[in-house]
Amino acid sequence: MADAKGKSRRLILLIVFIFVAGIGFAGLFNASLSATNEMEFCVSCHTMETNYLEYQDSLHFKNPSGVQATCADCHVPKAFLPKIATKVIAAKDVYHEIMGTIDTPEKFEEHRWAMASRVWKKMERSDSRECRTCHEFKNMDLSEQGRSARSRHARAEDKGQTCIECHQGVVHEMPREPRVKDDG
Ligand code: HEC
Ligand code: HEC
Ligand code: HEC
Ligand code: HEC
């Protein structure tokens, strides 16, 4: 009898332990996810790259209303599963950091078109999802926009166009497409 009591007590303790450990783990997991979204984290590798300096000149860094879009706002999805997928894929960045793939301005420029192309593809596939966490066609006051913006935006949705088709190079300069070796 006493033995059975001891057993169920241990079982309850075990359940409590797993429960508490689970909360602790989830907390750590979440904390590490958000820590890896901090701008300081991104620029600890993407330090002196021209595209970071270019960003600091952009309206997404500083503007009259004081709303800032950070690296992760545009490059890391908010929804859980796409976010995890992005983090897992980003492990390749650590590999390339160790290999020094973009560790000089020259190498960075050489790689730039390929990297930008990956970002464009991703944004086309997601219908510019990250842009739309802040911007929506339906919330735009078209009457306050310039003529060309107004007419493009009014029709973009019907035509199935997405932000990144028209707004490349919005914070970083447009990279140059590498020249094909033989010009024939
Ligand atoms: C450990 C160093 C390191 C950290 C931290 C890091 N990056 Fe990178 N990143 C790299 C390297 C190296 C590349 C080039 C990878 C390649 O050529 O495939 C890269 C490539 C990129 C690209 C180009 C597109 C692509 O898929 O290759 C983007 C965008 C990017 N990083 C954004 C970010 C953002 C946003 C953060 C912060 C959330 C971040 N990086 C944190 C090293 C890093
Ligand atoms: C975190 C919120 C946020 C995200 C994400 C975001 N933006 Fe913005 N965007 C802003 C703010 C804030 C401004 C400045 C508004 C102002 O003061 O006029 C702005 C301005 C702009 C402008 C006009 C100024 C300029 O630099 O040309 C364009 C175009 C634009 N965003 C496109 C985009 C696109 C494309 C994306 C996705 C790649 C994107 N934005 C992602 C918040 C955001
Ligand atoms: C068919 C092309 C097209 C599409 C698609 C498009 N835009 Fe634009 N947008 C323009 C043009 C052209 C302008 C005016 C010139 C400029 O600022 O680049 C503009 C201007 C803007 C501006 C500045 C408006 C102002 O007058 O202050 C913002 C912000 C903006 N776009 C955000 C977006 C976002 C976010 C999306 C996706 C939800 C988007 N645009 C989709 C063509 C487009
Ligand atoms: C407003 C959205 C936005 C913000 C904020 C932003 N990026 Fe980007 N990033 C883009 C887009 C869009 C591209 C694709 C190339 C282009 O159109 O400029 C890109 C491309 C890149 C690339 C590929 C190389 C290149 O220059 O094209 C890297 C690396 C990168 N971003 C890193 C960063 C880092 C690091 C930060 C923060 C310091 C940051 N980005 C902030 C939208 C953004």
Write a structural description.
It is a single chain. With about 180 residues, the protein is an all-alpha fold. The chain folds into 2 domains: about 1-35; about 45-165, no CATH class. It has 9 helices and no strands. The N and C termini lie far apart (about 90 Å). The site of one heme C has 22 residues, from helix 2, helix 4, helix 5 and helix 6. It is found in: Cell membrane. InterPro entries: Cytochrome_c-type_ET, Multihaem_cyt_sf, NapC/NirT/NrfH, NapC/NirT_cyt_c_N, NapC/NirT_cytc_sf.
Task: Please describe the structure with a list of short key phrases separated by commas or semicolons.
extended, 2 domains, 184 residues, transport, mainly alpha, 9 helices, binds heme C, single chain, 61% helix
What gross morphology would you assign? extended
Succession of helices and strands: HHHHHHHHH
Q: Which small molecules are bound?
A: heme C
User: How much helical structure, as a percent, in the residues?
Assistant: 55-70%
Query: By helix and strand content, what is the structural category?
Result: mainly alpha
Residue fraction in strands: under 5%
Question: Spans with pLDDT under 50 lasting ≥5 residues?
Answer: none
What count of domains describes the coordinates? 2
For the biggest sheet, the summary is: none
Distance between the termini: 91 Å
